[in-house]
TrEMBL record:
Superkingdom of origin: Bacteria
Provenance organism: Lentzea waywayandensis
Keyword Signal on entry: no
Protein name: Transcriptional regulator GlxA family, contains an amidase domain and an AraC-type DNA-binding HTH domain
HTH araC/xylS-type domain segment(s): 215-300
GO molecular function: DNA-binding transcription factor activity; sequence-specific DNA binding
């Protein structure tokens, strides 16, 4: 059972919290194994929108697979906002030190900074807070104008709705892109991604269409990422001709099924390399016969 623990800060934005919570709640419906809980420095945390939220003051002991999530709060400026006790910040820091993952939305990045987790790492936050975050944590590398950034189990996202993008990314990493795509479709999300950053998800960028035939083809490709898949085999799964698959897939995604599979492989390989795998190991794990093809595709 993976626990997703949301650390609630006074003035928390409801969508910063509810968006990711909905993603992980939907993941629990699809793959089981998720339990959501809410903690804070007080029993009742008042959101910026005026809704009181119940929280536990007891900070649980966590396992390495558990996730701590800090939603953002109302903050035209970071300084003087988002009060958290040293006890709560130490709890966040200890979870990461023990090998766990921590994540934030919007101003929640400042809580990670106060916990000492931004120094030497790439991070991001809402576009209105980027410059202030960079001044407050000069040892951090603040990446401007992207939706989310992951660096050594510290995952930060921009503002408000980008927490959904971040949560879907974490689900895709743990359970594969097919599960993340199913959740996105359940939530009726139109995927919007920043194409200037490697965190721009191939999966969601090309899943914003409504063609179910193409979705079926994508499901097969994503669930068998490392396999060689012929156009004929994909056509059987789609229930139509090879020519129709090519036509519909190109119209919905702007690429061929093979190009889509290659893009997914490169994205997955990038994640493995970011987690410490060699290029050769990553290439084999995603289905390339050797690292040369991966290097060529990455250089594009």
């Amino acid at each position: 059972m993976t626990r997703v623990v949301f650390l609630l800060v006074p003035g928390v934005h409801l969508l910063d919290l509810a968006g990711p919570a909905q993603v992980f709640s939907s993941a629990a419906d699809l793959v089981d194994g998720y339990a959501l809980s809410y903690v804070g420095d007080m029993d009742t945390v008042l959101s910026h929108q005026g809704v009181p939220l119940g929280a536990s003051r007891e900070l649980p002991s966590l396992d390495v697979d558990d996730l701590v999530f800090v939603p953002g709060w109302r903050s035209p400026k970071i300084v003087g906002t988002g009060h958290l006790s040293e006890r709560a910040l130490a709890w966040v820091r200890t979870h990461h030190d023990n090998g766990g993952t921590v994540a934030s939305v919007c101003a929640g990045a400042d809580a990670l900074g106060r916990a000492g987790l931004l120094d030497g790492r790439r991070c991001t936050t809402h576009h209105e807070l980027q410059e202030e975050l960079a001044r407050r944590y000069p040892a951090a590398h603040v990446v401007r104008d992207v939706l989310f950034v992951e660096d050594n189990r510290v995952v930060t996202s921009a503002g408000i709705a980008s927490g959904i993008d971040l949560a879907l990314h974490l689900v895709a990493v743990r359970h594969g892109p097919t599960v993340a795509a199913a959740i996105a479709r359940t939530m009726v999300i139109y995927a919007r991604r920043n194409g200037d950053d490697q965190q721009a998800s191939v999966l969601l960028r090309h899943r914003s269409h409504i063609n179910e035939t193409v979705h079926r083809v994508q499901d097969v490709i994503e669930s068998r990422l490392a396999d060689r898949l012929s156009l004929a085999e994909l056509a059987v799964h789609a229930g139509c001709s090879e020519r129709t698959v090519t036509r519909l897939f190109g119209r919905a995604t702007g690429m061929t099924p093979l190009r889509y599979q290659q893009a997914l492989r490169v994205e997955r390989a990038e994640h493995l390399i970011g987690q410490g795998a060699t290029v050769e190991t990553a290439a084999r794990n995603v289905g390339f016969e050797d690292a040369r093809m991966l290097r060529r595709l990455r250089s594009r």
